[in-house]
Design brief:
Layout: E1 4-7, H1 18-26, E2 29-32, E3 36-40, H2 43-46, E4 58-61, H3 64-76, E5 86-89, H4 92-97, E6 108-111, H5 117-125, E7 132-134, E8 137-138, H6 143-151, E9 155-157, E10 160-166, H7 170-173, E11 179-182, H8 185-194, E12 204-208, H9 210-218, E13 223-227, H10 235-247
Parallel strand pairs: 1-2, 1-11, 4-5, 4-7, 5-6, 7-9, 8-10, 11-12, 12-13
Antiparallel strand pairs: 3-10
Helix pairs in contact: 1-10, 8-9
Length: 249
C-alpha cells in the first residue's frame, strides 16, 4: 500500500495544486523537498564568457531553471529579447512555463512531442539552417544536445547561467518513502552523492523527462513511473495512473 510519496521539488505555493487534489483522492501523504539547490551566476561573472545574447535567434530550454536564469540574466544586463526569437523546449510543460516571461502566442515556441532529445532534434532540424542557437545551461549540461548541434553544423553557444548543487537530504531519505519522484538528473545525482550505497528496498521511483530517466537508470535505479507519456503528460497524471493501478492489486 502506498502511503508516503516524496516529490523532490519545492512545495507548490498557495493552496491550489493538482498534487494536493491527488493526495486527498488517494489518501496519501505528500512530502516536498528539493534535492538540488540552484545558484544563479551573476551577470558580472557571465560577461566573462563573452557571449552576446542578442546575436542569437533561437534558444533551447531543457528546464524551468534554465528559463528562470536566462531571463534573470537578460534583465540584469538590460538585454531586450527580439520578438522574433524562437524557443525550442524539451517538453510542453517547459514551453508553457515561458508564459511567465513572454507573450506566448506572439512568439514562436516549439517543443518535443514526447520529452526526448531525439524528438526535440526533429523539431530543431526543421529550423536549424536559419538560426543561431543559445543553449542556456548549468555547469553540468547535457552534452547530447551540443553534440547534435555540432554534428549538424549549427552555430551555437552554451552560456552557463547557474550552478546545480546537491542538497543535504539525509534526514529526508531516513523517513522511508514508498515513492520518490525525480524531475532532473541533478536530483538523481544528489541522491547518489548523499547515499553512495543507496538501495531501493522496494521504494518505487518516478522520473520526469528523458534525461532524468536516463540518469536514474544509469544510477542503477528500477523505475515504476515515467512521464511524460501519451496518457501521462505530467508527473501528477503519471502518479494518478500508478496509484489507481496499485488499488486494483
Amino acid at each position: 500500500m502506498i502511503k508516503k510519496v516524496l516529490i523532490t521539488q519545492p512545495k507548490p505555493e498557495g493552496e491550489k495544486s493538482p498534487y494536493f487534489d491527488l493526495a486527498k483522492k488517494h489518501n496519501v501523504e505528500l512530502h516536498f523537498h528539493p534535492f538540488i539547490i540552484v545558484d544563479g551566476i551573476p551577470a558580472k561573472e557571465f560577461r566573462k564568457q563573452k557571449i552576446e545574447i542578442h546575436n542569437f535567434t533561437a534558444v533551447i530550454f531543457t528546464s524551468r531553471n534554465a528559463i528562470d536564469h536566462f531571463f534573470r540574466t537578460c534583465d540584469e544586463m538590460k538585454i531586450n529579447i527580439s520578438q522574433n526569437t524562437k524557443y525550442f523546449c524539451i517538453t510542453e510543460s517547459v514551453a508553457l512555463y515561458l508564459q511567465k516571461f513572454i507573450l506566448y502566442r506572439k512568439r514562436k515556441v516549439f517543443y518535443s512531442a514526447d520529452g526526448t532529445n531525439k524528438s526535440l532534434f526533429d523539431v530543431i532540424n526543421k529550423h536549424k539552417d536559419n538560426e543561431k542557437f543559445l543553449y542556456p545551461c548549468s555547469q553540468s549540461f547535457d552534452s547530447e544536445i551540443t553534440n547534435w548541434l555540432r554534428a549538424h553544423h549549427c552555430e551555437y553557444a552554451t552560456p552557463e547561467l547557474y550552478k546545480i548543487i546537491s542538497n543535504d537530504i539525509k534526514d529526508i531519505i531516513a523517513q522511508n518513502f514508498d515513492v520518490i519522484c525525480f524531475f532532473t538528473p541533478g536530483g538523481v545525482k544528489s541522491l547518489i552523492e548523499n547515499f553512495p550505497a543507496y538501495k531501493q528496498n522496494g521504494t518505487k521511483i518516478g522520473t520526469f523527462g528523458a534525461n532524468t530517466t536516463k540518469a536514474a537508470e544509469e544510477a542503477g535505479l528500477t523505475l515504476d513511473i515515467k512521464a511524460p507519456q501519451p496518457k501521462a503528460p505530467s508527473m501528477v497524471s503519471a502518479l494518478e495512473i500508478f496509484l489507481t493501478s496499485q488499488k486494483k492489486k
